[in-house]
Structure formats: C-alpha cells, structure tokens
Amino acid sequence: YLKLYNLENQNCELIYGHGEIVLSLDAHCPATAITDSSACSLFASGSKDNTARVWLVDWAAADPARRVVCVAEAVGHTEAVGAVRLARKPGCNFMITGSQDRTVKLWDLSGVPKTSAAARQLAAPIRLSARYTFKAHDKDINSLAIAPNDQVFATGSQDKTAKLWSVAEGKLLGTFQGHRRGVWSVTFSPVDQVLATTSGDKTIKLWSLSDFSCLKTLEDHTSSVLSASFVTAGMQLVSVGGDGLVKLWTIKNEECVLTLDKHEDKIWSLAVADDGAQLATGGADSSIVFWKDTTEENIEKLHREQADELLKEQALSNYLQAK
C-alpha cells in the first residue's frame, strides 16, 4: 500500500491497490490544486507486481475514503516497475515507465479522468495502452526523468549508462558514458541544458545535453549516491546516498557546502518542493525526514545580532565619554 500524509498534523491515509511492494512514485500537482477546491492532482506508482497505477487525489473530498481513486492501470511489463514518471506540462497526457525487464513504455493518459466527478463515474480503473515499447538498457532500469518541456526523457541503468530519448518517437538521442558503477538516478536542470546522474561509484556527474560530454564530477559521498535534485534555480544540487547523508553542492565551484546527518541507514528517496524551501528524504531506517531551508532566517538573525552589537558599542562609547 501507499501512504498519503498530511504535513500539518502528520496524519496519514493508507491507499491500497498494488499486490506487491511499491518501488516508485511520481506526482503531477497543479499549482492551484491545494487552493482551488475543484482542482485535483494525479500521481503514479510502480510496483513489484509488474504494474503501474495512476491515482487521482481530490483534495476537497470530505470523506477520506473517497479522496484517492485509482483511475488507470498499466499492465504489460514482465518484471518489477522500478521507475515511473508523469508528463510535466499541464494536462499530463502521458506516463513513462521503466522496468527490471529492461524496457521502457510510454502510456497514453489522454482518456484518464482529471476531475473527481469523472473519476466517480468509473466502474473500474481504465486499462492503459502503451504507445510504444522498446528495450532501453542491458540491465535493470533504475530511474527516469522527463525534461520540463516534455520533449525528451532520460533513463539510468545498472549497466553504468544513462541515455537520452525522444518522447514523441522513443528514439535514442545519445548515451552518457563515464560512471564505473550503476546509475541510480537522473534529473534535468530546470534552467540549463544539463542532466545530473548519480551512481554507485560514489559520484555525481553533470552532462551536456548538446554533445553528451561530462561537464563536472562531484565527489564527497563515501558510498553510493542514490538520488539528487537541482535547487536554487539550478545553481545548487542536493544529493542523498548510501552513507545516510544529505549534501548540498554549489555547482559553479563543485563544492559541497553543507552536510546533514539525520538518517541511520541508506537514503533511497529525495523530494524537493517547487520553491526549494523544503525537502523530504526517505531512508532504509524506515523514516521520512522533512527539511526546511533556514538561510533567510539565519541571515535575519545575524543582522539582528549585528545591530544589537552596534547599539551596545555605541552605549559603551557614550558611557566612556561621560566617564
């Protein structure tokens, strides 16, 4: 099952549907979904039961049992679905899945209900059809990422490579080669033509999408780097790894500027809020940790302390002059 958490009170709802362990998640949440009572969100899940499912979340539903509805099911992979991604643009008309069977499938979501009223009319989840299927790698596919413009997507595999593909045709555009171990995650920069990959070789690599060359290699983790995400308008990168650490990198000078230690085991998953102010990490220690960016608060505190120090120095100076 899955869990849907309320971040204000930490309450959660159990969501049943898959027959085996859930390995991957992705969400498509419109900016108005929380404030607009008529807006809904979609999220997708991939499982060891060889299927992927698409769920609709009605945030305005009074009955928690009716808040989440499975609206579609993708059946066709012959092994576990370890990676799933929804289209990034509004409308969310397709989903891409990657599997341990080494294939990639693109599923048409144009007929999937996007409103709670349409979802309630379903007698059963829609059986999705794959627009195309192809063998993408020589070993398990660990991760997928779709570019912000929905034109291309990337895959990362245990075969030590990442690859770039055309969304429209599933055509191979290029291969990123250089890691010495399997690639655990791939992610696109929100502002540049750059792809970031993380690997079991303890490194993060940044690649050019134009010529597929390696631009930078970031090294500081002491174990496999399992996930990464761009923050601060693409100027920084957050990574998590098998060493249980969260690291913040400044890309320009390839420097690790902050290391956070809260988990007691491998950190397998990382999610960053759209504004970059919060992030969540999930680990093999069975815990989910929420992190908040306190940079502005720390700067304000420093300014207050400096102003207070100036007042004290001025007062001391006045007392000395008055003897």
Structure write-up:
This protein is mostly beta strands and 323 residues long. The chain has a five-stranded mixed β-sheet with strand order 3-4-5-6-10. It has a four-stranded antiparallel β-sheet with strand order 7-8-9-11, with no helix packed on it. A four-stranded antiparallel β-sheet has the order 12-13-14-15, with no helix packed on it. The longest helix is centred in the last third of the chain and has 27 residues. It is globular, with a radius of gyration of 23 Å. The model has no long low-confidence stretch (mean pLDDT 91). This is U3 small nucleolar RNA-associated protein.
Question: Keywords, please?
Answer:
four-stranded antiparallel β-sheet, U3 small nucleolar RNA-associated protein, 323 residues, 10% helix, mainly beta
